Structures are given as C-alpha cells and as structure tokens.
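Intended use. Records like the one below are meant for learning the mapping from a protein sequence to its folded structure. Do not use them to infer anything beyond what is encoded.
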Amino acid sequence: MSTRTLNPGDTFLLRYALRPRGGDDVISNFDDAQPETITFGDGTLAPTLEQWLLDLVPGERYVFLLEPWQAFGESQSDLIQTLPKNDVPADIALEVDQLVEFAMPNGQTLAGHILEISDDAVKVDFNHPLADLSIEFEVEIVDIL
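Structure written out for the chain above:
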C-alpha cells in the first residue's frame, strides 16, 4: 500500500457510498468484489465530490457530511423542461417518477426524472437526483496506483 496522499492526476482504487444524510445508500461499492479504478480529474466523479479526496491517505475510511451546495447543488428551474414525446427513446415505457437516460448530440447521456406525462409531451427534471439534499459521502482510498 502507498503511504502518500492522493493528488490531482493520480489513478487510485476507491470504495465509496453516497446517501442522503441519515438515509439509505443511493450508490455504494463497499460490498463489490473490487473497488472502482478512477483517475483523479477524469470526470468519473463530480468535481464537487472529487475535491474531498485530495490529500486523503489510503487505507482509512472517511465520511464527509456535505450541504447541497458542497455536493450536487440546488435545483435549477431551467433544468425542468417539457419535451415532445418523440424526443423520448421509443423503447421506454414512460412512467411518472422514472429515471430515463437521454442521448445528447455529442454522444453523452443525460439522466432525467419524469415528472408528468401528457398525450404529446413529457415534463422532465434534469437536475441531479441528489440536488437540494444534504449528503453523506463515505470513501476509502484503497490504494494509489
């Protein structure tokens, strides 16, 4: 194991969990067979989360209690949009409260939470699902490669 601390550009093995403060895990890889391999700054983690990993020592577990502005921010009303139904992938049976991935022109995907469905349109919230929430970010840098 490495004894140095994590720095920008490092590739490292990470175990982590995200949950609303006091709630259940939204995502966790602590029970997975292998930790995730991440390169600091490659966009795998949101920059607002990545900053908390700077200077951490491998082999120790940390829990960061983050306010919304420190994690995924506040909801933005302009990220709630009404789209024509034909903009939604045809193979998806739409349901209110469903999370749908939309293909962007640049090839990336963007997740949206379905709020309302009408005959010809769908109201979608493109804010991060954890926006407006205080978050627990639990991490363990397993090793720096």
